[in-house]
Amino acid sequence: MNKPLLSIIVPCYNVASFLPRCIESLIKQTYVNVEILLIDDGSTDDTPILCDQYAKVDSRVKVIHQENHGSSASREIGLKHIEGDFVTFVDADDWVHPDMYSIMTQDLIESKADIAQCGVCDTYIHTYGNESQIEYKHRITDKITSDYQIYNKISGVLKILDDKEWQSYMWNKIYRKKLFDNIQFPKGRGLDEDLSVMHLIFHNASSSIYINSEFYYYLHREGSICSSIDKASLVKKTIDRNTARWERYQFTLSHEEYHEMLCKMQNIVVSVGLQSLRFIYKNQSFFDKQFISTLKNRLLSLSKIKLMPEFFSKMKKIEWFLFRYSFPLYYFAVKKLNIN
Predict the structure, then answer these.
(1) Percent of the chain, pLDDT > 90?
(2) Could you give the angle at the alpha carbon of 272 between the alpha carbons of 268 and 278, nearest 5°?
(3) What residue stretches are annotated with the Glycosyltransferase 2-like domain (predicted)?
(4) How far is CA 53 from CA 17, 19, 259, in A?
């Protein structure tokens, strides 16, 4: 069987404690025709040293050192330097099953699809004194299979937008490189950057497959982009979260073939927006007034949407009513009465 080159892009920023496990899982893949691009994003710990060490012992490992620009910029740099027709991404604190790329690449070739994706296993590291133990939480199954289901373009995009069975992770998928020809990753995003592009990538694909095996091990840890909780990060997350949801809504609105998801996209924008406004008005000095105004106008433009029960409890419906028809009372309730 033809074994095309698979390019694996790994953005790396201050992950020295986790990087060896990640890289070891990549170089020990049963699918050997890979190139591993480690993008050192201006790390200040031993990450650059580790990257260079692995490049010396395995010719498939390549390293690019750059100033810190974020994971989106690292992915774009990686895409400019890859040689494979297939490409995938791995976060540097995660790791993968040894047969992940062998099975997924074989299925991708056999199906002639443009994207292959697999399930994700959540992992947690518990430390007891000097010893650490990894906890595995399977979302669906711990069985390994090469069986897959195939989806056409519209079905794939709808499932990505629905965000239930499929999620917009970059890293549990293999893509044909051509899908990224007109994709631009959002610059400066610290959250939900994958959410801003995944529907666009699937929109470029003629078909995709889903393999019901949890090949990708996602590590939940403190200090990662997704778990940082300082005030500045919360402000940035608030802006990024709303921007990504608005972009998805605008995409859905502009493509009639996906309009069955339009109501849900509207509800997500409003639900996330109201949640954000509660945080904003309790921390108003940290936010740019222009963003607050933009967010309010976006929500008001959706004032006539049909509310979905999965997003709006009775209390949230009251909150939405006050926002639309009595903003002073809404502001007072949020600011003074500590509505959550």
Answers:
(1) 71
(2) 155
(3) 7-148
(4) 15, 12, 50
Rounded Cα–Cα distance for residues 237 and 229 (Å): 10
Bridge pairing between strands 95-96 and 61-66: unpaired
The boundaries of the domain holding residue 30 are 6-220
* Residue 265 pLDDT exceeds 80: yes
Q: What is the CATH number of the domain that holds 98?
A: 3.90.550.10
3 state SS of 63: strand
Which residues sit opposite 128 in a β-bridge?
Answer: 131
Contact 104, 63 (CB under 8 A): no
Q: Does one domain contain both 77 and 170?
A: yes
Nearest CA to 176 among 34, 60, 6?
6
Other Cβ atoms closer than 10 A to 94: 22
**Total structural domains within the chain:** 2
Residues 6+ away with beta carbon under 8 Å from 227: 220, 221
Dist. CA 187–CA 167, nearest whole Å:
21
